[in-house]
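User: Before I run my own analysis I want an independent prediction to cross-check against. Here's the chain; please return only the structure tokens and, at the end, one sentence I can use as a sanity check.
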Amino acid sequence: MTEPIQVVQWVVEAAEQRKALNVVVLDLRKISLIADYFVVCSGRSTVQVKAIAEFIEDYLETKGVFVLHREGKREGQWSLLDYGAVVVHVFRDEERRFYALESLWADAELMESFSVEGAKDLEYGSNKIARSRVDF
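Assistant: Structure tokens:
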């Protein structure tokens, strides 16, 4: 079984390959049973949102990780990909501002950076400082 942090790393890689904007990873392990991590990102248009979500799903399938549930992929406003311990939210910019998941989950730790070699040197910033850097 693939570790959730590895799934997060692959999601971030896939999102960045499709030019997703403002990719943010929220660590929910200390505050929620819903999931271990949320990955939140956005696209400028419905076409880009669909492309990002589709590529993430396809990329993870090549790694042997399959989506358990998906929502909103057809509409392109907000796509949700549920991988169990990792939930991916791909928003159009306007919807991301409206739903403000980062604010809703403000108690979650914001993971600021990844080591591409395996996500072993995760750095956690203080929420107040890190959230001020999320500019969308």
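Sanity check: Residues 115-136 have pLDDT under 50 and may be disordered.
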